[in-house]
Design brief:
The protein is built from four helices and 41 strands. With 734 residues, it is mostly beta strands.
Length: 734
């Protein structure tokens, strides 16, 4: 990687900054105030600290320069102070904070700035971090996000669960790790697990709106980014780390995680982490689902060289995972299938801060990802036979230019990316090995006019999908395919008052078919299907329309959205109703149809006082295949969440209800599911334990042990969702 280090900043003699933060009314010190220290001439130099139990804080080894101190504490008005170090320590700083009487959900504050109200609505409103992440944290990404508005879970048991947004799943939902695409097979089939660990995540964000086009051409879906910051990107003056533990009783699952970040010297920093997860077969209210155990190991190592105007870093991460897919019923393997995943990733990153008149920052990422996936059939003699194998070698890179604010655009990014994926198959899979290449150019721009904010995004994609074997088979002419498409999105927000906003999203989406959708041909026992691709598929295209509103006051926050996606060509696998004679599996054929997906989302947070609040949300999706005048398959039904919460700075106690309607709008050969109501309770406590910030979270889900079925589960006909489950999470920041 080419790295330009253009800085005349020299770290020589360093100094100390210390002081006391106190309550302006009670005249006492305030503990656990989050303090962010940032160099005014270089935002990259940013370190943070928490006050102790008497409100005292200290920063050591601070170079000469001007700094901004930002003081944040839930229940207090934020305070900012500017200081300058010339030739001596700065001590006895006295900061007084004024109480607001309001509480917030998180103790770990994100330093990301909210550039606009549109950014807040499209990105920051769909983010799990801090206490909220620790409370919702579960064994998979999908189960962690399941209570977010508009998100459902596709599953075939607990391990291969994957998020679905507004009824859209698969390749329409891109999953990233530290802003780089996650490489695995989870989008292609419901039996394939997401090859990422969420227990070590610092943050999980769901990105919607035009900024999706920086990562994906599919404007109607979304991007889920798992943030771990494997490559250190900020100065730290001392070592820090965390330890965590999680438990779930539904499958007697245990999770362990630990990480550390160390300053090797004044410019070199290292980071490492490891997590391990083991769970047994999952239990429903009346039985145990055999062959659903899972076992995961994840690790990461990263280092970086940081100067005030540049960063160069590299990281290596790896994961192994073993899990089961149940069997023993019609359409499945008699004794189930076991799946083994291996993955490793090498990522190099450079961040440059030229701070020029046009370009403010330049981000460069290069990656190499290796993924190997084996599906084993369990035989009657206790042995295992390889049924299918998938092997991916992927090279990718991107360069993003973040623009300096100018007279037209407040914020803007433009960039380019490439990827090359070599996909090979083994076992009883008859799909040809395929190499897929992608080149993309993209931009997003943001501007404002009086009470109107606008975000505009565009992405041009070229894809080449080249099978190793060119032939004519029963699915058609398997050959090299090329696709070129443009996706566009425009989002506007109009300010009616200081508290009320209305807006709209307009988009054109275009997604090329994948190699699996084009060329699949053969049995997939773990997915209970015989999969047939379609080499004549075109790019998936459509128009998206959305109207949304946002209202915020001291005691009430409201947000609502109505969307309509008119798809000229929508790629979907459908049960043909035919049985493959050789394998006794139902044939699923990938087709392109005209379709409409429409729906509504709403959420409200009613604050009765500074400690008691009621959060509620609802979502509904309606999908229609206009080509056949049939409902689209596997659409989530109406869902509502009610969450009554009592919260102070350090303690929370709540009740959470989930209400889901029956799904009677069915594609052919699809099974109806009944509605259900399940109840949960939870509590959370945060404290300074051994000079660390520690969070304890305890929840009981489905406390009445209700039998219910998830419509998006491929095994709902034989097994309901888990019964009563106790979940405990602990995390300490050292």
């Amino acid at each position: 990687m080419l790295l330009i280090l253009n800085s005349n900043f020299v770290i020589s003699k360093t100094y100390e900054i210390s002081g006391i933060v106190s309550d302006n009314d009670q005249q006492g010190g305030i503990e656990k105030v989050f303090i962010d220290l940032t160099h005014l001439n270089d935002s990259l130099f940013s370190i943070n600290a928490l006050t102790n139990d008497v409100g005292y804080f200290k920063f050591s080894k601070i170079p000469i320069g001007k700094y901004r101190l930002h003081f944040k504490r839930f229940g207090y008005v934020e305070e900012v102070k500017t200081i300058e170090i010339i030739d001596k320590d700065i001590k006895q700083i006295n900061i007084k904070l004024n109480s607001t009487g309001m509480q917030s959900a998180a103790i770990i504050v994100s330093k990301d700035k909210v550039e606009s109200k549109l950014t807040e609505i499209n990105e920051h409103d769909h983010r799990l971090e801090g206490k909220k992440l620790q409370l919702e944290l579960s064994q998979t990404l999908a189960s962690t996000l399941k209570n977010e508005t508009g998100i459902s879970v596709r599953s075939m048991g607990p391990a291969p669960a994957r998020p679905v947004i507004r009824g859209l799943g698969g390749n329409r939902i891109q999953i990233n790790e530290d802003s780089s695409p996650l490489i695995d097979m989870s989008a292609s089939s419901p039996d394939h697990a997401v090859s990422s660990d969420v227990f070590s995540a610092e943050q999980i964000e769901v990105i919607r709106g035009p900024k999706v086009l920086l990562n994906s051409p599919t404007t109607i879906g979304g991007v889920i980014n798992i943030v771990r910051n494997d490559i250190p990107n900020k100065f730290i003056s001392k070592s820090n780390g965390y330890v965590g533990y999680g438990y779930e009783s539904a499958n007697t699952g245990n999770s362990l995680a630990s990480g550390i970040e160390v300053p090797v010297d004044s410019n070199i920093f290292a980071k490492a982490g490891i997590s391990y997860k083991k769970a047994n077969d999952v239990q429903s209210p009346d039985s145990i689902l055999k062959n659903t155990a899972l076992n995961n190991l994840h690790f990461n190592l990263g280092t970086s060289y940081i100067l005030p105007n540049s960063v160069a870093g590299i990281s290596f991460s790896g994961m192994t995972s073993d899990y089961g897919i149940p069997g023993g019923f019609i359409g499945s393997h008699p004794r189930g299938v076991n799946i083994s995943q291996e993955k490793n990733s090498l990522v190099a990153k450079s961040i440059l801060h030229p701070h020029g008149e046009v370009i403010d920052d330049i981000n460069i990422i290069l990656s190499r990802n290796y993924y190997f996936h084996t599906e084993y059939e369990n035989l009657s003699n206790g042995q295992k036979s390889i049924g299918a194998q998938f092997n991916i070698l992927n090279y990718a890179g991107n360069i993003d230019f973040i623009q300096h604010e100018n007279s037209i655009f407040k914020n803007g990014t433009f960039g380019a990316s490439f990827s090359s994926r070599d996909l090979r198959y083994g076992g009883f899979v008859f799909t040809p090995a395929t190499n897929s290449k992608n080149i993309a150019l993209y931009t997003t721009q943001e501007t404002s006019f009086d009470n109107l904010e606008l975000q505009i995004g565009a992405r041009a994609n070229y894809d080449n999908i080249n099978p190793e074997t060119v032939k004519t088979s029963k699915i058609g002419n398997i050959r090299e395919r090329e696709f070129a498409q443009v996706s566009i999105a425009v989002s506007g927000l109009f300010k009616l008052s200081e508290s009320f906003f209305i807006g709209t999203n307009l988009s054109r989406t275009s997604r090329p078919p994948t190699a699996e959708e084009l060329f699949s041909e053969g049995p997939h026992l773990a997915a209970y299907s015989y999969e047939l691709g379609n080499p004549e598929l075109k790019s998936e295209t459509g128009l998206g329309y959305e109207i949304f509103s946002n209202f915020s006051s001291d005691n009430l926050d409201l947000a609502s959205s109505v969307f309509y996606y008119d798809m000229d060509y929508f790629i979907t696998p459908r049960n043909s109703g035919k049985i493959n004679v050789a394998t006794i599996l139902p044939e699923f054929i990938t087709t392109g149809v005209k379709a409409v997906i429409t729906g509504v989302e709403a959420k409200a947070n009613l604050k009765f006082n500074s400690t008691l609040a009621l959060f509620s949300s609802l979502s509904y999706n309606y999908g229609q295949n206009k080509s056949d005048n049939m409902p689209l398959p596997m659409m989530p039904p109406f869902k509502a969440i009610l969450d009554l919460k009592y919260r102070t700075d350090d303690f929370a106690l709540g009740m959470k209800s989930e209400i889901v309607s029956a799904q009677i709008r069915l594609d052919q050969f699809e099974q109806e599911t009944k509605g259900y109501y399940i109840q949960g309770i939870y509590t959370q406590y945060q404290t300074n334990l051994l000079s660390s910030v520690s969070t304890f979270s305890l929840s009981i889900e489905n406390i009445f042990n209700t039998i219910y079925r998830n419509h998006l589960s491929r095994i709902k006909s034989i097994f309901p969702e888990p019964g009563r489950s106790i979940r405990f999470n602990f995390k300490a920041y050292l």
